[in-house]
Amino acid sequence: QLQLAESGGGAVQPGGSLRLSCVVSGLSLQYLNVAWFRQAPGERREGVSCISAVDGDDGNEDTLYGESVKGRFTISRDRAKNTVFLQMNNLRPEDAAVYYCAAFAGVNCNLQPMAYLDWGQGTQVAVSS
To answer: Taking 90 as the threshold, does the pLDDT of residue 103 lie above it?
Structure first.
């Protein structure tokens, strides 16, 4: 059974940084597309970033980012630790939300929540002065 556990959330001021972690157990990351989603109160779940199980043709990690986080957030993984990270820099008040990691077995990731079968419990991110 696949399990995902997020950590690293917290409260920061605008412009600050946080690094979220998603520890995956039950299946190796080499078989899994993993994504970060976020949901603020009263809002629909939004795709933040994802990383594909298979690297791109250039040998680099195959990643996607939502428009609102491009250039500020970076997704990465440590295969040895079966963990996916989300480095969040230059945080804004509108980034405040519960952040979830999610996974599905496949080749290429996407930012559609319906594609993801397994989800973590979420970690809260607050951004305010």
So the answer is: yes
